[in-house]
Amino acid sequence: MNTVFKALNDPIRREILTLLKKGDMTAGEIADHFQIGKPTLSHHLDLLRQADLVSSRKDGQFVVYSLSTTVLDEILQWMYQLSQQKQ
Amino acid sequence: MNTVFKALNDPIRREILTLLKKGDMTAGEIADHFQIGKPTLSHHLDLLRQADLVSSRKDGQFVVYSLSTTVLDEILQWMYQLSQQKQ
DNA sequence: TTTATATTTCGACAAATATCGAAATATTTT
DNA sequence: AAAATATTTCGATATTTGTCGAAATATAAA
Hints:
3 strands; Arc Repressor Mutant, subunit A; alpha+beta; DNA-binding; homodimer
């Protein structure tokens, strides 16, 4: 849970998730959407992977990233419990 | 959105929200649940308040904290959109 | 009005984080 | 095999964050 919230606590990483929602992308394609260096982006992707929010597979010289929703569902569950009105 | 994820990115602050789910508490009562100093806890409560995840009211010499669910609902919404399978 | 209790603010400091350029690794193309 | 492309790893650095003790503020009790 810690790693997930840590990963979500950054605008760029949340934007990456939104991008991946539309479809899989290579690291380079993702990088093109931001004004930051490749090493920095690689680090962001690493944190997202550590949190299991994305998965990656190698395709030739590219690395393709995909959104993983399993962990998001767990967090959704946690938040839903909190937000439920207590009677 | 930034402030909310920042606020949620800490085990103690998430635990505070869970405590407040059960009912309102004073700053002191909350502090008794943790092994950290009062100033530190006050700071955590401040971040939660900045994120509108809690509200506070003064009751005599005490300050009573309550859970606010409005912002949680917004985050829930955001996460739900992400987690929805794209067809 | 003095003393006690509850909470926050103020400085200070150690640990964590985001960022970068350079170098390393892996794959493809020539 | 050499050159080009894609991505990650490695150090280094500036910023942010969590923590504390001491002091400040506010209310209640003696």
